[in-house]
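Case 286 in the screening queue. Each case pairs one protein sequence with one candidate compound; here the compound is nicotinamide-adenine-dinucleotide. For every case the pipeline is the same: read the inputs, emit a complex structure as tokens, and attach any notable structural observations.

Predict complex for case 286.
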Amino acid sequence: MGPSDILLTDQVAIVTGSGAGIGQGIAAGLAAFGADVVVAEIDPERARVTAGLIESQGRRCLAVPTDMSDTEQIRSMVDEAQRHFGRLDILVNNVGGVRQAPFLDQSERSWRRHIDLNLISLFATTAAATPTMISGAKGGSIVNVASIEALRAAPEFAVYAACKAAMTNFTRTMALELAEHGIRVNALAPDIIATPGIRGIITGPVPSPLPPARGRSSEGVTRYVPLGREGSIDDCAGAAVFLCSAMARYVTGVTLSIDGGTAASAGWVRRADGRGWQLVAEQADA
Ligand SMILES: NC(=O)c1ccc[n+]([C@@H]2O[C@H](COP(=O)([O-])OP(=O)(O)OC[C@H]3O[C@@H](n4cnc5c(N)ncnc54)[C@H](O)[C@@H]3O)[C@@H](O)[C@H]2O)c1
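Case 286 output:
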């Protein structure tokens, strides 16, 4: 083993929803470690920004305008990627979306939109891309971007959380089905990563400037996140590069939390004076 085991030189990656946020960070991160990247993104302007980040690192980029909730568009995006690069080594199923509402206020249309974007897109992209990886006979890596909401109850995010939980189990099953081809399948479970998407949930729609390299450290965040700050897209990119590289050659079927410790904390928060920890219930009783 040596430092070159982290490199992805000349590998080809598809990253879905990579015009902003976590997908953009992962696309740029894979390029920084040597991969060429297919940007599958619905917004052409955002795709151009990501293409610029990839090309500025000396790597090739193919931006394919794709609505990832449309399985026909997914299949033609993968075909175009295969024609253009002739190989595929990495697939990052990042695209996803959420509308916050109590379950009883959600319409059937809303359930189906969640399922199309968060789950059917995962199935369709995996089904379309994996045969090219198999025929390359060099193995490969699939990284599914799930969420901390896959691991805990998520009031007002019920359908989204159910989709993300399904994603983590699909990850485990695919890890077994694809093991004989040397294709490893893992998931990320991020929590509060500074992206246009999460800002949109908290404050309403926001434009898409590149988020800061380190997330904010407001008082609430400092108390909730053991590492004391929001996550950044680079925090997610680092984990994705690791999982795609030979450094993770014996890692498959796992869901890796990228959350500064929030999944581990499970209800513990920092005391308001910063001295030690308390369970949220103790605070309510005080
Ligand atoms: N940001 C977080 O804190 C967080 C936490 C947990 C999980 N996640 C997951 O990470 C993934 C990315 O989240 P984000 O916060 O970076 O999102 P984001 O909204 O900041 O960026 C998403 C990107 O996907 C694109 N996109 C949206 N719909 C699309 C479609 N139908 N087809 C193609 N592209 C589309 C958007 O244009 C945008 O460029 C999602 O799966 C989300 O559920 C995010």
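Case 286 observations:
- Residues 17, 19-23, 41-43, 46, 66-69, 94-97, 117, 145, 147, 190-193, 195-198 surround nicotinamide-adenine-dinucleotide (CB under 6 Å).
- The first helix runs from residue 21 to 32.
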